[in-house]
Design goal:
The chain is mainly α. It is built from 3 helices and no strands. α1 crosses α3.
Length: about 160
C-alpha cells in the first residue's frame, strides 16, 4: 500500500515537472523569438542610419550651394525630394545645436549675473546702514535739553 502511494506520488511529481519544464521551454522560446525579432529590427535601423548618414554627407555641400527653396519646387512629387528635405532637416538641426548651446549659456550667465547683482545690492544696503550707524556713533547729534530754554528758577530739581 505504501509503495503504491509513493509510486503515484512520483508519477504525479513527474507530470508536474514535465508541465513546468514545457512551460519554461515555451517561455524561453518566446524570449528567443523576441530577441531575434529585435535583432532584425536593430539591423534594419542600423542600415537606415548608415543610408541617412551617407545621404547627409553627400547632400550637405549641395544644400549650402543651392538657394533656399529651389530644389523643393523643381522636384515636387519625386522621391528624391523627401530625402533632400530629410537631409536638410538633419543639417539644420546640426547647425542649430551650437546656437542653442550658445543661447543656453547666455541664459545661465544672465541668471548668474542677476543673482550676483542682487547679492551686491543687499551687501551695499547693509554696508550703507553700517556706515550710517558708525557715522552717528562718531558724530553724535547733541539734543538740546528742554530745560535749557527754561529760566533758572523754572528748572526742575
Amino acid at each position: 500500500m505504501e509503495v503504491l502511494q509513493l509510486e503515484t506520488q512520483i508519477e504525479h511529481d513527474r507530470v508536474i515537472h514535465d508541465k513546468t519544464v514545457a512551460e519554461r521551454m515555451r517561455f524561453s522560446d518566446a524570449l528567443l523569438k523576441n530577441c531575434r525579432k529585435r535583432h532584425a529590427q536593430n539591423g534594419a535601423l542600423l542600415q537606415q542610419v548608415q543610408v541617412l548618414q551617407a545621404l547627409v554627407g553627400s547632400q550637405a555641400p549641395m544644400t549650402t550651394s543651392i538657394a533656399p527653396g529651389n530644389s523643393v519646387e523643381k522636384c515636387a512629387g519625386q522621391g528624391v525630394c523627401e530625402s533632400v528635405l530629410t537631409a536638410r532637416v538633419v543639417a539644420a538641426e546640426l547647425t542649430e545645436c551650437p546656437q542653442r548651446c550658445r543661447r543656453m549659456k547666455g541664459l545661465v550667465t544672465t541668471k548668474k549675473l542677476r543673482d550676483i547683482a542682487k547679492a551686491q545690492q543687499f551687501e551695499s544696503a547693509s554696508l550703507k546702514a553700517e556706515l550710517d550707524r558708525l557715522h552717528l556713533r562718531t558724530f553724535p547729534s547733541f539734543l538740546e535739553l528742554q530745560h535749557a530754554s527754561l529760566q533758572p528758577d523754572e528748572m526742575p530739581v
